[in-house]
Inverse folding.
């Protein structure tokens, strides 16, 4: 069964995820946060999550959720290098919060 065509560029269906990252009710993100180096992404998300008073979960959960959301919505449009950078940002975020990194057994 063939896959349906992607929505036309600029259509409403393609903008809702950008709207979420820009106007999230949980975090106020810095402009261009996901285009930075992994450590900078993690520090920015941590800073945004800790400053937010609207989040419902812990700051770690909110920051990780936003990073995962961005990665999932970007999907096939991410280059392998960018995908690796986002995975490294997840590990850096875990490190900043004192959590075990992926593949590391809990203490």
């Amino acid at each position: 069964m063939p896959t349906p065509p992607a929505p036309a560029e600029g259509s409403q269906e393609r903008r809702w995820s950008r709207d979420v990252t820009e106007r999230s009710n949980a975090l106020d993100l810095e402009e261009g946060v996901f285009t930075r180096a992994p450590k900078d992404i993690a520090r920015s998300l941590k800073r945004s999550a800790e400053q937010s008073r609207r989040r419902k979960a812990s700051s770690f959960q909110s920051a990780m959720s936003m990073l995962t959301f961005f990665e999932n919505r970007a999907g096939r449009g991410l280059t392998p290098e960018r995908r690796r950078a986002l995975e490294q940002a997840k590990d850096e975020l875990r490190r900043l919060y004192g959590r075990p990194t992926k593949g590391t057994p809990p203490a």
In short: The two ends are 47 Å apart (CA to CA). Helices lie at 16-23, 38-51, 59-74, 80-96.
